[in-house]
Amino acid sequence: MPIYMEISRLHRTVTIVARGKIDPEEIRGMAMKLAEAKVRSFAKILEVAGATTAFTPEQVLRLAEMLRGASTEKRGPIAFVIDPRHQAFPQAFAAETESEGPIRLFTSLREARQWLQSFFVDPWQRPADQTAWTDPEREGVLLRGNRRRDGLRLVRHR
Fold this sequence. Notes:
Layout: E1 2-8, E2 13-22, H1 24-37, E3 43-53, H2 57-69, E4 78-81, H3 88-97, E5 103-106, H4 109-117, E6 139-144, E7 147-153
């Protein structure tokens, strides 16, 4: 099943949505895209409530090390949106990286966004109809198995 990532450089946010059974290689591929994008300090929402994976503790450790080594920047806050029945990977990743920056697990996207909003320096400078998740210049990447579609330009229609 697919993993979709959207980066907004304007608002310094990353949104990742995963659905279905996710292969560890797909997770590593997405982590490599994150490292290449140099967005370690950005706020991130990882919506994984509809996903499952069979990541081992050793694989979680290697993933954390790869992301850690990709940048000298301080890591931004991470909000996982989870299904309480499938939280092994998010819990393991949070436990492995909690000393690197704020990280929390939520069961609601609304709660995750509210928590992340508290980390933005001055949200009042944005136009009234924009939030950190409404950047008209954001770009997306879709990973599905070993196929990848980059450079998805997302256009906001009025």
